[in-house]
Design brief:
The complex is a heterotrimer of chains A (252), B (391) and C (345). Chain B is mainly alpha-helical. Chain B has helices at residues 6-25, 43-66, 74-90, 95-117, 122-142, 144-150, 202-222, 225-242, 247-272, 283-296, 303-318, 323-329, 335-345, 353-367, 371-390, and strands at 156-157, 179-180, 183-184, 188-193, 196-201, 275-276. Chain B has one domain (6-282): ABC transporter involved in vitamin B12 uptake, BtuC, CATH 1.10.3470. Chain B contains 15 helices and six strands. Chain C has a two-stranded antiparallel sheet with strand order 1-2. A two-stranded antiparallel ribbon of chain C has the order 3-4. Chain C is globular, with a radius of gyration of 22 Å. Classes of the chains: A alpha/beta (252), B mainly alpha (391), C mainly alpha (345). Chains in contact: A-B, B-C.
Chain lengths: 252, 391, 345
C-alpha cells in the first residue's frame, strides 16, 4: 500500500513561539494513524495546516501527489480530505438531517451548484445516504431535531457523521471522543473501526485517551514541542523512553 | 404538486385567495359610513401592498436566509424604476418589456455591487452596501453624466413625444397610459353591492399575478438545496468551507436574486404609475424594506408579504387620523378624560406614524425576533401543544 | 488654481470633518468597548443640537407686560416681552446670556447627554451584547427613528436657527496674515471656534483614556474584554460610563454645530451614514483612525466641491466620500489604522 499523506519539513511560528518545527510524517493508505503528545505540542496546529486553516511558514503536505498547502479549505475538502472538529462546528440552526445533507451535497455537486429550483424533497439519494450514515452513528431517531438543541455528545457524533457522509479518502479527527462517556467512547471506537475496514478510509486521529489510541491506531506519531519525536507501531510506543519523558516533561 | 410540499402549496393558495379577494376584504366599511375613509381597498394602496411585498420577499431571500443585512437595496429598486420608464419611453407603452428589463438591469447592478460588497462580511458588508446605495442616490440626483438617464432631482416620466418605436406613433391627444396589450393599468371595474363599493383594478391584478409568481419562486428557492446552503451560510459560514462548499457564489447568487426582486418591484411601480424619482434610491427606502421584513418575520415565507402589507396599510390609515377625529372618537368620555386620551394618542398618529413604526419595530426586534409571523407560529404551537397534552 | 482657494477648501473641510470626527469617535468608542454597532448615534448628535435650541428657548422665556404709553397698530396697548433673565440680571447681562446661549448649552447638554447615554445603555443596549450584530443594528436603527420622530413632534420638521454669539458673527481674514490680499481667504469665526472645540474634546477624550486608571481599564477592556473581566474589575459599569461619554461627545458636537447649520430632526441620520463610513475607513475600533478619517474625508468632500472640479465632474462632491470609502475598504479592508480581523463576522 502506498502513502496517502506525506508531510515534509513543515514549520510554523506564532510570534516567538515555534509551534511546528520541521515536522515530517507519512500516513499509509487505509490505515488509522494517531498523533499523540502533551498539551501544546502542536497537534491541532498541524491539523489546521492540513486543511488550509493555517498557512505554514515552510514545508509541503502532499496528499496523493497534490499539495494541500496554499489551497483553500473547500478545495482541500474537495480533493477528499474531511475534517471532524474538536469543538462541534455544526450548523446550529439547521436540523440534524440537513447538517449531514450539506456535506453530502458538497461531495456530489462540488463547491457550487445553482440548483435553486430543485426541491430538496426530491434529493432522495442524498437523503438516503445521510440517513444511512446517521443510522451508523446512532442518530437516526433525531433526524428533524434542531442541531443546537442536542447534547454535547450527540453534537460530536453529528460532527463525525458530517465527515463520514462525504466518503473522504482521508478523515481528520480531532479528539473524537473527548467529553464522551465510556459507553459512547466504546461505541465511537466500534464505528470508526467498522468504517475504516469497510470503506477503506485513511484516518488521522488526534487523541488524549490512550485507550482509544491503542485500540484503534495502526501507527502512532508522538509530537512534542512541535516536533515528531517518535513514529512507530503502537506496541513499540508504550515502552518508549522518549515518549515517557515528553509526557512527564509536558506535565510540568 | 408544482414541486411544493402540501403545507407550502396551502400557504401559496391562501395568499392567492387573499390577493384575489383583497378588493373586497379591504373595503369592509360601507361608503356612506364615517369609517369609509379607513377602507384600504383602493387600487393605488393595494398595488403598493403587492409591490412592496415583492420587494420584501426578495430582501428576505438575502437577509432571511444568509443573514447578510443589506442597507442598499433601494439602489436596485430605483435602478429598476428608471429602466422601466426608459422602456416605456423608447420601446412600447406595453408594460411587459419594462418589467423584464427593470429586473435585468437591477440584476446587473446587484451583480457589480454584490461582487464588491461580499468581499467583506458582517457590519462591513452592511456599510459597504449602504455606501454603494448612497453613491447611486447621489449619482442619480446630481452627477451630470448619470442625470441624463435619471432626470436628476426632477425625475423621469413618460411624455407624449416619446419615440415608442414599437407602438403606432401618436403625437396628439393624451400621454398613453401603461397597458398590457391594450388593457390599461388604470382600468377598473367597480361593483357596488348595497352601500359597499368594490374596485377591481387591472393594474392590481397584474401586480397580483407577478407577486404570486415571485412568491412561488421564493418558496421553491427556500426549499431547494441552494436554499439550504444559504441557511448554512447564516448558521456557520466558516464550517461551510470546511465542508467543501465555497460560500461566496451562493451568497452572491442570493444577493443578485434579491436585487432582481427589488428591480422587479421598481419596474412594477413604474408600470402602475409611469414616473421614477430619485427618492426611490434614498437609503430610507432601504430602511423601509428592512422594517417590513423584520416586522413581518424574517426568514419566514409569508412574513415579508405580511410586513409589507401591514406597514403600507397602517401608514395610510394612521396618517389619516387627526386631532379632531380623535376628539370625535373619544367624545363619549368626560371632557378632561377625553382631552387626556387625545393628548396621549395624538403623537403616535397622523404625522407621528413613524414614531409608532419605530416603536413597534423596536419591540419586535427586542421581544419577537421571528417577527409577527414567528410570534404567531410559536403562539399557535404553544396552544396546540397544550390542547394536545390535555387530550 | 490659486493657493488661497486650496487653503480655503482645507479650512472648509475642517468644520464638517470636525463633526464627522467627533461622531465617529463616539461610535468607535462604543464599538471598541461594548462591541455594539450603534445606529442611534446620529440621533444623539441631533439631540445635542436641539439642546442648544431648547436652552435658547428657555433663556428667552419672557414675561409679557402691557405698555400703556405705546399703542400697537390696532390701538391697543403694546405688548412688551421681557425675558426673565433680563428682569433677574438686568438687560445687559440678560441679553448677553441669551446671546451666548449656544456655548452655554454645553453645560446644559453634558448632564442631559450623559443621562441619555446611561439610560440607553442600561435600558436597551445592555440586552444586546450577546445578540448578533444584525440585531444590534436593527434595534438601534429603530431607536434612531423613535428619537428622531420624538424630536420632530416637539420641535417640528423645519430647521430652527440657533445663532452664534454676536462676537463670532462674521469672518476672519486669514489671507492677510499670510501675505494675500484682503478678502481672499475669509473664514467664519464660528467655524474656527468649532474646529478648536473639536480639538479640545478629542484631546480630552484621548488624555482621559491615556492618563487615568479608568481609561487604562477601558483600553484594556477594548483589547480583551474577557481577561479584564476575570481580573475582578467591574468592566460593565465602566463601559456604561463610556457609553455616556460617547453620547456626550456626540451631543456636544451637535450643540456647537447649530450655528453652522440650523438643526432639523433629520440631521442625525444625515451625519450618521457618513460617520459610519468614517469609522470603517478609519478602522473599526481605532480611535485615532476615526479622527484621522473624519478630517480626511471632510477635507476630501470639500475639495470635491471646488467649482473647477464640479465643472468637470458635476455632483462628484456628493459621492466622493462613498467612493473613497469603497476603494479604501477594498484595498485595505481593516481601514486606515484598524487592527486585523475586527468585526469580520
Amino acid at each position: 500500500m502506498g502513502s496517502a499523506l506525506e508531510v515534509r519539513g513543515v514549520n510554523k511560528r506564532f510570534g516567538g513561539l515555534q509551534a511546528l518545527n520541521d515536522v515530517n510524517l507519512t500516513v499509509e493508505e487505509g490505515r488509522i494513524h494517531a498523533i499523540i503528545g502533551p498539551n501544546g505540542a502542536g497537534k491541532s496546529t498541524l491539523l489546521n495546516c492540513f486543511v488550509g486553516r493555517l498557512k505554514p511558514d515552510s514545508g509541503t503536505v502532499m496528499f496523493h501527489g497534490q499539495n494541500l498547502l496554499g489551497i483553500l479549505p473547500y478545495q482541500v475538502n474537495q480533493v477528499g480530505v474531511s475534517r471532524v472538529f474538536q469543538t462541534p462546528e455544526i450548523f446550529a440552526d439547521l436540523t440534524v438531517l440537513e447538517n449531514v445533507m450539506i456535506p453530502a451535497l458538497a461531495h456530489r455537486d462540488g463547491i457550487f451548484e445553482m440548483n435553486a429550483m430543485k426541491p430538496l424533497l426530491k434529493e432522495t439519494d442524498i437523503r438516503k445516504k445521510a440517513v444511512d450514515v446517521l443510522e451508523d452513528i446512532g442518530l437516526h431517531d433525531k433526524l428533524d431535531m434542531t442541531a443546537s438543541s442536542m447534547s454535547r455528545g450527540d453534537k460530536r457524533r453529528l460532527e463525525m457523521a458530517m465527515g463520514l457522509v462525504q466518503e473522504p479518502k482521508l478523515l481528520l479527527l480531532d479528539e473524537p471522543t473527548a467529553g464522551m462517556s465510556r459507553a459512547d467512547t466504546n461505541n465511537t471506537i466500534e464505528v470508526l473501526k467498522h468504517i475504516s475496514k469497510s470503506r477503506a478510509i485513511t484516518m488521522i486521529i488526534i487523541e488524549h485517551d490512550m485507550h482509544v489510541v491503542f485500540t484503534l491506531a495502526d501507527r502512532i506519531s508522538v509530537l512534542a514541542q512541535g516536533t515528531v519525536i517518535v513514529e512507530d507501531q503502537p506496541e513499540n510506543i508504550k515502552g518508549n523512553k522518549k515518549v515517557q519523558e515528553a509526557y512527564l516533561g509536558g506535565a510540568h | 404538486m408544482f414541486g411544493l410540499s402540501r403545507g407550502d402549496l396551502l400557504l401559496w393558495l391562501f395568499v392567492l385567495l387573499l390577493v384575489l379577494a383583497a378588493p373586497i376584504l379591504l373595503n369592509p366599511f360601507p361608503e356612506s359610513s364615517a369609517l369609509a375613509q379607513f377602507n384600504g381597498g383602493y387600487p393605488d394602496l393595494m398595488q403598493r401592498f403587492l409591490i412592496f411585498g415583492i420587494f420584501a420577499i426578495g430582501f428576505n431571500i438575502l437577509f432571511g436566509l444568509t443573514g447578510y443585512l443589506s442597507f442598499g437595496h433601494a439602489a436596485f429598486l430605483g435602478a429598476g424604476s428608471y429602466a422601466a420608464v426608459w422602456m416605456l419611453k423608447l420601446l412600447t407603452i406595453n408594460v411587459i418589456p419594462a418589467i423584464i428589463v427593470s429586473t435585468l438591469v437591477a440584476g446587473i447592478l446587484s451583480l457589480i455591487i454584490g461582487y464588491i460588497s461580499l468581499r467583506r462580511s458582517g457590519i462591513y458588508f452592511s456599510i459597504l452596501t449602504l455606501a454603494f446605495a448612497q453613491m447611486s442616490f447621489a449619482a442619480a440626483a446630481s452627477v451630470g453624466f448619470v442625470t441624463q438617464f435619471t432626470g436628476g432631482e426632477t425625475g423621469l416620466q413618460t411624455a407624449l413625444n416619446d419615440p415608442r418605436i414599437l407602438d403606432t406613433a401618436s403625437t396628439t391627444g393624451n400621454i398613453p397610459a401603461p397597458s398590457l396589450f391594450g388593457l390599461e393599468m388604470r382600468d377598473s371595474f367597480q361593483w357596488s353591492v348595497g352601500d359597499w363599493l368594490w374596485t377591481f383594478n387591472a393594474g392590481y391584478y397584474v401586480c397580483g399575478f407577478v407577486m404570486m409568481v415571485a412568491f412561488y419562486i421564493a418558496i421553491r428557492i427556500t426549499r431547494s438545496p441552494f436554499g439550504m446552503m444559504l441557511k448554512a451560510v447564516k448558521s456557520n459560514n466558516e464550517r461551510l468551507s470546511y465542508t467543501g462548499i465555497n460560500p461566496k457564489p451562493y451568497t452572491l447568487a442570493a444577493f443578485v436574486i434579491s436585487g432582481m426582486y427589488a428591480g422587479l418591484a421598481g419596474g412594477l411601480m413604474v408600470a402602475m404609475d409611469p414616473l421614477a424619482g430619485v427618492e426611490r434610491m434614498q437609503w430610507t427606502a432601504s430602511g423601509e424594506v428592512v422594517l417590513m421584513t423584520i416586522l413581518g418575520g424574517v426568514g419566514t415565507l409569508i412574513g415579508p408579504i405580511f410586513g409589507a402589507g401591514l406597514i403600507k396599510y397602517f401608514e395610510n390609515i394612521f396618517s389619516k387620523i387627526n386631532e379632531s377625529l380623535l376628539h370625535q372618537w373619544f367624545a363619549f368620555l368626560p371632557d378632561g378624560v377625553e382631552d387626556f386620551f387625545v393628548a396621549v394618542i395624538y403623537p403616535f398618529v397622523g404625522k407621528g406614524w413613524h414614531l409608532t413604526l419605530g416603536l413597534s419595530f423596536m419591540l419586535v426586534v427586542i421581544f419577537l425576533p421571528g417577527g409577527m409571523v414567528g410570534g404567531l407560529t410559536s403562539l399557535y404551537r404553544r396552544i396546540f401543544k397544550k390542547s394536545k397534552q390535555a387530550n | 488654481m490659486e493657493l488661497s482657494a486650496l487653503l480655503l477648501q482645507v479650512l472648509n473641510g475642517l468644520d464638517k470633518g470636525s463633526a464627522y470626527a467627533l461622531i465617529a469617535l463616539g461610535l468607535t468608542l462604543i464599538f471598541g468597548t461594548l462591541g455594539v454597532v450603534n445606529f442611534a448615534h446620529g440621533a444623539l448628535f441631533m439631540i445635542g443640537a436641539f439642546c442648544s435650541v431648547t436652552l435658547q428657548r428657555l433663556l428667552s422665556t419672557s414675561v409679557i407686560t402691557l405698555d400703556e404709553t405705546k399703542l400697537d397698530f390696532l390701538g391697543n396697548p403694546a405688548k412688551i416681552s421681557t425675558p426673565y433673565v433680563n428682569t433677574w440680571f438686568g438687560p445687559d447681562i440678560g441679553n448677553a446670556i441669551i446671546d451666548w446661549s449656544v456655548p452655554l448649552a454645553i453645560l446644559f447638554a453634558i448632564p442631559i447627554m450623559l443621562l441619555i447615554g446611561f439610560v440607553m445603555e442600561r435600558g436597551l443596549i445592555k440586552h444586546f451584547y450577546k445578540r448578533p450584530h444584525a440585531d444590534q443594528i436593527l434595534v438601534t436603527f429603530g431607536l434612531a427613528i423613535v428619537l428622531q420622530e420624538a424630536v420632530k413632534y416637539f420641535f417640528g420638521a423645519n430647521q430652527i436657527p440657533a445663532p452664534a454669539p454676536d462676537m463670532f458673527v462674521g469672518s476672519f481674514d486669514f489671507g492677510v496674515y499670510i501675505g494675500m490680499n484682503p478678502g481672499k481667504l475669509m473664514y467664519p469665526y464660528w467655524r474656527i471656534v468649532y474646529f478648536l472645540f473639536a480639538l479640545v474634546i478629542i484631546l480630552a477624550v484621548f488624555s482621559f483614556l491615556q492618563f487615568t486608571t479608568f481609561g487604562m481599564v477601558v483600553r484594556a477592556g477594548m483589547a480583551d474584554r474577557e481577561t479584564v473581566g476575570l481580573l475582578g474589575i467591574n468592566i460593565d459599569k465602566r463601559f456604561t460610563i463610556m457609553f455616556g461619554i460617547a453620547a456626550a461627545v456626540a451631543g456636544l458636537a451637535g450643540v456647537m454645530y447649530t450655528p453652522i447649520n440650523p438643526p432639523s430632526y433629520t440631521m442625525g441620520m444625515d451625519f450618521l451614514v457618513i460617520s459610519f463610513v468614517v469609522v470603517v475607513v478609519g478602522g473599526m475600533g481605532s480611535l485615532p483612525g476615526a479622527v484621522l478619517a473624519g478630517f480626511l474625508l471632510g477635507i476630501l468632500e470639500s475639495f470635491a466641491s471646488i467649482r473647477q472640479v464640479i465643472d468637470v465632474l458635476p455632483g462628484i462632491n456628493n459621492l466622493v466620500i462613498y467612493l473613497a470609502a469603497i476603494m479604501i475598504l477594498l484595498a485595505r479592508p481593516r481601514g486606515l489604522l484598524g487592527r486585523k480581523g475586527v468585526m469580520e463576522n
